[in-house]
C-alpha cells in the first residue's frame, strides 16, 4: 500500500473512532448487508454512510438530501473522514439522487410513513436492483407496510427501540421476484388469525398498523407504544364528541371501536405472556 493509501485508511479509522451513532441509527446500520451498494435517503449529516464506510461494511454509498444545508454538512463529514471515493453526497428529492441499478440497499429514516411511501412510489425504475429496504417511519407505519406488501417487498424483521423517550419503529424488507412466493408469504405475514385461539380474529388493518412481526413477538416497548396510542386516540374521541359537525359522532364511534380492539389485542398478548412464563 502506498503512503496516500495508508493516510486514507488512518483517516477512516479516526472517523470511526470519533463517530458515534444514536441507538436508532446503530440498529439500522446492523441491518445493512455486508458489501452493500448503499443509499441513505434524507441523510442529514451522512452519519450512517460514513460510519458504515469507515467500518468497511459497504462498497459504495450515496448520501442524498433535499436540503442544501444538510448536503453541505454531509460533504464536510465525508471529507473529514477521507471517504470521498466511497461516499457520494448528492442534492435531490428522494430517490432522484440515485440512478437505476446503482444501489442494492436503501435506508430511509426520520420522516412520516406517508412521505416515505411517496418517495418509494415515485422512485420507479430507481428501485431496480434494490433488494433490501431499511426503514424507520416515525408515524403512519401502516402506510409503509401497505406499500411494501403491494410492491413485492416482504418484511423480514421489525423492532421497536426507545431513545430519549421516543419509541421508534424499524422495518427491514427484502424484495421477492416470484409472484407466487410473494402472495404466499404475504398471506402468512398478514394473517388475521395470528393470535388465535386466544383472540379469534384481528382486523387486517390493525395488523398493518401494529406490525405483523411485532405482534408475534411483542416487547415492553410494544406495549408502551400502544398504551400511548390509546391515550392519543381517546383524546381525539373526546374532541370529536364535543364537535358540532354531523360526521363527528360517526367518526368518534369508529375510533372507539379501534381503541376497543387495540385493548383486546394487548390483553390477549399479556395473557399469552403470563401463560408462557
Automatic annotation (TrEMBL):
Gene Ontology MF term list: tRNA (adenine(22)-N1)-methyltransferase activity
UniProt-listed Gene3D superfamilies: 1.10.287.1890, Vaccinia Virus protein VP39
GO biological process per UniProt: methylation
Keyword set includes Cell membrane: no
Name of a matching Pfam family: TrmK
Entry-linked InterPro entries: SAM-dependent_MTases_sf, TrmK
The entry's keywords: Coiled coil, Methyltransferase, Transferase
Residue ranges of coiled coil: 245-272
Protein name, per record: SAM-dependent methyltransferase
